[in-house]
Amino acid sequence: MFRRSTRASQRGFTLFELLTALSVAGVLAAVGVPAMGSFHGKAVVDAQVQSLSSAMRRARQEAITRGELVTVCAMDPATAESTEPDCLASGKNWSAGWIVFVDRGRRGEIGSSDRVITVHQSGDNKGGALSTQRYVTYRAGGEMLSLASHFRFLPPGQPLEDAALPGSVLVCINKPGRPRVARSQDCEG
Asked: Global pTM?
């Protein structure tokens, strides 16, 4: 004969099971949230690196095609929202974005005879961007008018300094004007 349990079948969770599930979920969240933050920071930096590299390649190609000087300059954050953004007058902070233009007048400044080719404005969720120069100019032959340069891109929340901080990326531009992502902490390697 079969014995029937007088106890009703159990439904739901016990308090112990609920607390165990919550603690496992808490551990997974504690591990996953910082990883998501670094993933977001890497995505922001990668997007900025690609955008600047594209702007540099375009400036170089425009200089060759047009047979004129073409400059890429750091955008002045005070003019970033205007219909006529301007180059940064001093400093080497490229965090607001950059402007590519045919540079017929004073180097690194947009004048009345200059022609703006493209403007890149960094979004609200941007990271930092620093360079060794305020602007980079390409000659008609495609090489840089100035010395070689480098850019350090930093994820959001990192201090604005040109140092190998976690998540930062160094982009080197050689004298012939070609950008590349550095594999080491300086442009020598």
From this structure: 0.76
